[in-house]
Amino acid sequence: MEQLIASDTTVAEFIMKHPPVHVDTKPQVVTLKDKPFTASLVSESAVLSLRGLEKEIQDDIGERGIAKLHIADELLRAALVLSHSSFVGIHFGFPCNTNDEFPDETDGPLGAIALGKALKALGKEVTFIASYYHVKLVQVLVETFLRNKACVVEFTPQRTHGSGRVRAAAQTLLFHNPTNQMSPKFDVLVAIEAVGRTEEGRYMTMKARDLSEICKVSPVDEVFIQAKKSGKIATIGIGDGGNEIGMGKVHQMVVDGIKNGQHIATTVATDHLITSGVSNWGGSALVAALAILSQCPVHSPYVRRGILPDTPVLTKDILNTVEMEEDILKCIVGLGVCDGILQKREMSVDGQPFHPVHKEKLQRLLTIATLPIGITEQEAAIR
């Protein structure tokens, strides 16, 4: 993904001498990483569209105070990182319903599967990293909704490997040569509504209920810790409360501004952090962002380096419809997955019914994703 661009002029100077014919082709440089410097190009109009998506998912429906955790343009940077990737690992999992066969909640799986579909449509290799308690659930979802076009691997370190077993297992999962961390197996890892450990090494719900007994068997957050530490694999976290993988990037803000923050705040940070009123929305917004970038007249040729053949991917092949999202929810509820707040097997996520709450939010994200780049809903209505 890392690229070096040498030029005897700045982008601003070049644009002044060669103004774009259309505003939607005016380029903007977006820094993705400082050391080593990594950046990407995208049209200013596409940036506006992605900011519209990011604004849409800040609706704090659970009144948790996520506005205090928001970092502007993280959706943009995360989408660009994924656009440049070839091999992506995805993880979800918040086992708050500990008495159920599948203790996950309904927030997380929908966004993760939608993202997996989008990445596959864009030609990426996708691997789902599963905890021991939901391997079968992930396999069913991949088989049913991705037609087995993604891999599923279980991360459960063997207890006989000594004190460094978890770290060693994570490095083995991440690298072809784990001894010196050469040849990463992934370009990017994405965690969506996945529990992360606190400073004390515990895994907590928003109500400060301890889930450590189940989480420490498959501590997938260690995979993200080792990936970020290596500096060779980009990491993205999507969360809505402060206790999810990625929220370590705003650890002190969670401690100071979120209820029970001093008890639940995770220290597991990611390079990019997407905050959202509901984590599934964050996953859907990331998918919508990828759809927009795939149609961007500046970013698309830049990713292809201007020489690879232009084989456009249809937006409909990237995005899930509202009906598709509803089908995923029906599937996991049918398998016994419960709403994390209501702790009931219902067509709801985070205590809110799919109809109308989540349906309407998904529709708004889809509307933004399918509008001409840079055009607002109001402008489209006038036209």
Account of the 3D structure:
This protein has helices at residues 11-17, 44-56, 74-83, 109-121, 135-145, 165-174, 212-215, 221-230, 251-257, 261-264, 279-295, 299-303, 315-318, 322-334, 354-370, 377-382; strands spanning 27-33, 38-43, 87-93, 125-130, 151-154, 175-177, 182-184, 188-194, 234-239, 272-275, 348-349, 352-353. With 383 residues, the chain is of the alpha/beta class. The protein has a single domain (11-381), classed as inorganic pyrophosphatase (n-terminal core) (Alpha-Beta Complex), CATH 3.90.1640.20. Strands 5-4-3-8-9-10 form a six-stranded parallel β-sheet, with helices on both faces. Strands 1-2 form a two-stranded antiparallel sheet. A two-stranded antiparallel sheet has the order 6-7. The radius of gyration is 20 Å and the shape is globular.
Order of helices and strands: HEEHHEHEHEHEEEHHEHHEHHHHEEHH
Radius of gyration: 20 Å
Strand content: 5-15%
Strand order of the largest sheet: 5-4-3-8-9-10
Number of helices: 16
Helix content: 25-40%
The total number of structural domains is 1
Quick tags:
two-stranded antiparallel ribbon; 39% helix; inorganic pyrophosphatase (n-terminal core); 383 residues; D-glutamate cyclase-like C-terminal domain-containing protein; 6-stranded parallel β-sheet
Topology:
Layout: H1 11-17, E1 27-33, E2 38-43, H2 44-56, H3 74-83, E3 87-93, H4 109-121, E4 125-130, H5 135-145, E5 151-154, H6 165-174, E6 175-177, E7 182-184, E8 188-194, H7 212-215, H8 221-230, E9 234-239, H9 251-257, H10 261-264, E10 272-275, H11 279-295, H12 299-303, H13 315-318, H14 322-334, E11 348-349, E12 352-353, H15 354-370, H16 377-382
Helix pairs in contact: 2-11, 2-15, 3-11, 4-11, 4-14, 6-8, 11-15
Organism: Pocillopora damicornis (Cauliflower coral)
Protein name: D-glutamate cyclase-like C-terminal domain-containing protein
Domain D-glutamate cyclase-like C-terminal: 53-365
